[in-house]
Amino acid sequence: MDWSLILNWGFLIALATAGITLAVPVLLAALGEIVTERAGVLNLGLDGVMVAGGVAGFMAAFYLQNGPLAGISQWLGLAVGVLAGMLMGLILAVLTITLRADQVVAGVTLVVLGHGVGNYLYRQNIGTLTARTNGLPPLALPGLNRIPVLGEILFNKDGTVYLTAFLVFLVWFLLFRTTWGLKIRAVGENPAASDTSGINVNLTRYAATLIGTALAGLGGAVLTVVQLRMFREGIMGGRGWIALALVIFARWRPGLALAGALMFGLADAIQYRVQALSQIERGVGTIPYEFLLMLPYILTILVLLYRAGRGDAPEALGRPYVKGSD
Amino acid sequence: MTQATIESLAHDARKPLPGWAAHIAAPVVGGLIGLGIGVFLIVIAGADPLAAYAVMFQGAFGGARQIQETILKTAPLLIMGLGLSVAFRARVWNIGGEGQYYMGALVGGAIGLAFPGWPSPLLIPAMLVGGAAGGLLWALIAGLMKVRRGVSEIISTLMLNYIAILFVQYMARGPLQEPGGYLPESAQLVAAARLPTFFGTRIHLGVLIALVLIPLVFALIWSTPLGFRLRAVGERASVARYAGIQVERMILFALAFSGALAGLAGIIEVSTLHTRLKGEISGGYGFSGILVALLGRMHPLGVTVAALFFAALTIGAQSMHVVYGLPDALANAIQAIVVLSVLAVDALAHRR
Which CATH fold topology does B48-325 show? Predict the structure, then answer.
């Protein structure tokens, strides 16, 4: 491979630009899962929640974009994705918080539910693989987009990227600067003590689960409605699972999740770009594309190996709360 | 199924029933709820649910050929479900069955491709052992990461799925591609590398293996010290450790065993159904196998019934797809709803 094709400004800028965009879906899911897990609920069904958001959001945006609501159809699609995610969250919450079912079993089954129902509804209603949404146009931030290099990388994105950046701040603010965030964290660390001090443990956990799945549903919808503008089976590519690993990597902190997601976005972008290059530069030293496609998954395993065995997880994570016990 | 019925059934399951009946009540109720919500999914697709279910039943059990298809679909589900039952009893959450299935298919298939001259009685055992070894070693990667570094096997086995599938895709279009072939797949396995079939049907050795594994897994779980230790680790790892059980070894065994059976399922499917290595050899058994183990309550007999039920759903959904054009993904949706319902019914029954 001719390395000058990679090591030049234009290519690196394109890479960074794509990396930031590709980080968005997984970052949204990870942010949501941070809120959920901080309250002590482990949502292993994240990938199924993202698929539910992705398929519902895509279908809504696709059907609405030729009607009277065409102007806001893409954003409505994203909103439907949020609602679909929350519906999945409600199922999980009833099972694990109210009924105190095993969170691992419920989560894994939720994944199959999301994929199964999602694929069924898509094939039943649209079916074709050529259906496309209109997506969102880039929204250049006046002035800021004129900054050399950075302007192009950071300030000429579609609206969901700015929204996600704001949500990183919002989740951080919610968790660490509001009494409500304090309650969420208290419930995740020591539900019995929280209960004694008058916090409604299960209500707080419901709220945290619904917020978490709303964000995961949004992440799935951003991928299908705005970024790939299509839906097909397996389109989520395990992003929900990667987000779960990101939460561990980020030590349950929104800021670190941002950093981790950017790393993944970049790995994804490299994978796409080098693939495209290999096709131009046939022959010498080309890497089989399967190995490039493996990059995000290998990276996830490396991240887990690096982070594993260190604490920081919410104390009561994965354990249902029974009044009067500890 | 109304909420009141569920609650009353759950209530019934609480005390007055003998243990085995309580164990069976929830899956039966769950199955009914799953099929009930399936009615809703069929109705919103504009089809007649009763007619659609009749077609499904016909498709799965309507004749000798249909029953044969259902049995053939049961075998890999059963083999994977049995392996996962053992792992789940130790609360080792191997959700990487799909990847282990692929690696088993790869290793076993490569042996079959490499030694086409071997006689069948030598080649087939070699392939089966190779398949099991492939799945075992792939699962052991997650096992070692778990016991050495404390990496959650849930995420690691899942990530290894994607890596395994991509690796098999690469091998099938690269090093193992049929010489002179254009498609991304290996040459076809020679006749000696195909599992023998019985009685002039397509029922093959893999079905027999699955049947033999039922009592073996039963014995492993309840009649061996190993099974006792596995269950002890699943009950409470800290107590098991205190009692002198080497928890790490049990974790490794649980992953190795379930991985080996997943790999075995992989090579069986490649030897009988696909007859060559290619990217698309998945039957979605990775996740279905998990649900089979859970619905079967990690009991070999329960797993057998669950595997048969899921196989019938899958085969039946294919008929429904042909006749009514309803997507066969309905089978997966119903399977997940069934397991979620069982989870809910169980939780209701055990609520204090």
Answer: ABC transporter involved in vitamin B12 uptake, BtuC (1.10.3470)
